[in-house]
Amino acid sequence: MGIYPPSLENLIVQFSKLPGIGQKSATRVALHVLRSNRDLAEGLAQSLIDVKEKIRFCSICFNLTDDDPCSICRDDNRANGSVCVVEGPGDQLAIEEAGIFKGRYHVLHGVLSPLDGIGPEHLKIGKLLTRLEGERIEEVILATNPTTAGEATASFLSRLLSEKDPSIKITRIALGIPMGGDLKYMDRMTLEHALKSRLPVTR
Amino acid sequence: MTTHISNAIIMRTWEFGETDLLVSFFTSDKGRLKGVAKGGRKSRKRFANCLDLLSLVKLEYELKRGRELYFLHSGKLVHAFPGIRSDFSSLSLASYMIELTETLFPLSVTDKEMFALLKNAFLALNEGKRNGVLRILFEAKAMALGGYRINLDKCCGCGRPYAGEGRAAFKQSKGSLACLKCEQESKLSPGLSPDSVKVLRVIQSTPWDKAQTLDLNNEMIREIKPVLKLHIEYRTGQRLKTAQYLE
Ligand SMILES: [Zn+2]
Ligand SMILES: [Zn+2]
């Protein structure tokens, strides 16, 4: 503690608690706030409080939302039959921004990771199973990331879902060479997946 | 600074800054190390899918001056063990093996045999070998490598050599067998049949390839399991976090 007045020092301490922000960046940001006009500080303070007070989980899909159910779950124009299961709100957002998927989502809020003490009971899995009963779901798309934990989560879910309802269609997003990728830099697992899931060329 | 190249198993990763990855890995020749992969979350050229948990990779790295932290240059995937990823109970057991290794081996303690044990255990898990048997093989061998081999040769009470005549009990505080005159069988001193003792002795002392072919019946598994559980808890002073996910 030291060279700055206590109130400025305090702001620096608060900023440096944020991920990826060290002492230096925190000081820079705090000094910027100090130099800027009052509107910036008030806007910042208000949005910080808003985000804590207003944002919650959708009670159906566990997406982040201001209103419950969220706008996607309320939207009658979206296809009810398919649910895309993702790890976190960021993944849901990425798919939604691409504008290609017109079904519903389910956000797990994590992946199975025994080393971090995260088991099935820590994810929003129970609610996904109850959705199978309530909504007429024909297809569940498993869109967890192709990492060790994401793959294990996908196969855990596929087993669980097919036990619950053997008639349900379960699909996994394709794995392989990314667009703009270069075969020379691909690892053998990726190449193996890409060859296994090759598609006939449409003529 | 010299650059090293080692085969290594990725034990844990943490996101670090915007694009970097902090990686804990067990090498074949330098033990367990920690390092930073600059751009590890983005660079497909230098780290093509090779910094994923539990993968066997060939890593190129060097020591940062005056630090315990290594700098990872590049890596190449050797084996991703897809069979472990596709089954939660296998993932749980592999995670447990990682945690036990971390507990037994501090950073930078070289142990070629421990690396081989991890790798062989992952290969066997990947092939779908029985998890219950693999757990016992790994626990007994890892504890022996970590310096906590169970004494199966003589009673820790009276010192009489154990020659396979009748049952014996395991005494946790001594990490040893005891004859039934010195120690009664109980939940805290679980008993072992002569066959179980023999099998455990073979597991502790023979290489993986041979130990792997042992025919453990359900009775042996049922007897040996609690012995190893008590032994590990006593010697490491804790119940491993990942143990809760094992059947
Ligand atoms: Zn919703
Ligand atoms: Zn005795």
* Biggest interface, chains and residue tallies: A-B, 23 and 31 residues
Gyration radius of chain A, rounded: 22 Å
The CATH class of the largest domain in chain B turns out to be Mainly Alpha
- Our Rg estimate of chain B from Cα atoms comes to 20 Å
Percentage of residues assigned to helices of chain B = 25-40%
What is the CATH third-level topology name of the largest domain in chain B? de novo design (two linked rop proteins)
Number of helical stretches of at least 4 residues of chain B: 7
The portion of residues forming beta strands of chain B comes to 15-25%
Written overview of the protein:
The complex is a heterodimer of chains A (203) and B (247). Chain A has helices at residues 6-15, 23-35, 38-54, 71-74, 89-98, 126-134, 148-164, 188-196, and strands spanning 56-57, 64-65, 82-86, 104-107, 139-142, 169-172. Chain A is α/β, with parallel strands linked by helices and 203 residues long. Chain A has 3 domains: 6-54, Helicase, Ruva Protein, domain 3; 78-172, Dna Topoisomerase Vi A Subunit, Chain: A, domain 2; 175-203, no CATH class. In chain A, strands 4-3-5-6 form a 4-stranded parallel β-sheet. The longest helix of chain A is centred in the first third of the chain and has 17 residues, at 38-54. The radius of gyration of chain A is 22 Å and the shape is globular. The model of chain A has no long low-confidence stretch (mean pLDDT 92). Chain B folds into 2 domains: 4-80, Nucleic acid-binding proteins (OB fold (Dihydrolipoamide Acetyltransferase, E2P)), CATH 2.40.50; 83-150 and 181-245, Up-down Bundle (de novo design (two linked rop proteins)). Chain B is built from 7 helices and 8 strands. The model of chain B has no long low-confidence stretch (mean pLDDT 93). Chains A and B meet through helix 7 and helix 8 of A and helix 1 and helix 2 of B. Bound molecules: zinc ion (2 copies). Residues 155, 157-158, 160, 178-179, 181-182 of chain B line the site of one zinc ion (ZN).
